[in-house]
Known about the structure:
globular, 2 helices, alpha+beta, five-stranded mixed sheet, about 30% helix, Alpha-Beta Plaits
Amino acid sequence: MRGRVQGVFFRAFTRQTAQRLGVTGYVRNREDGSVETRAEGDRGQLEKLLEYLREGPSHAHVDSIEVDWSEESGQYSEFTIEY
């Protein structure tokens, strides 16, 4: 998924929420200013993560989210922030 976000702490919020839900993958800023997240796990937990990301942390404004569902790769052992 990727989207446009304004505000602070969105990547940390995403990592914390994903870890709490038992989801693996990563979140990172893209060169165009959007935020990209690759998340893998149980479909129900991924849908919960999406709900949280649509709201974002306090003081953040989520403009939009694009979601692309695909098969789980199994390559992630945890959820990280990539730089």
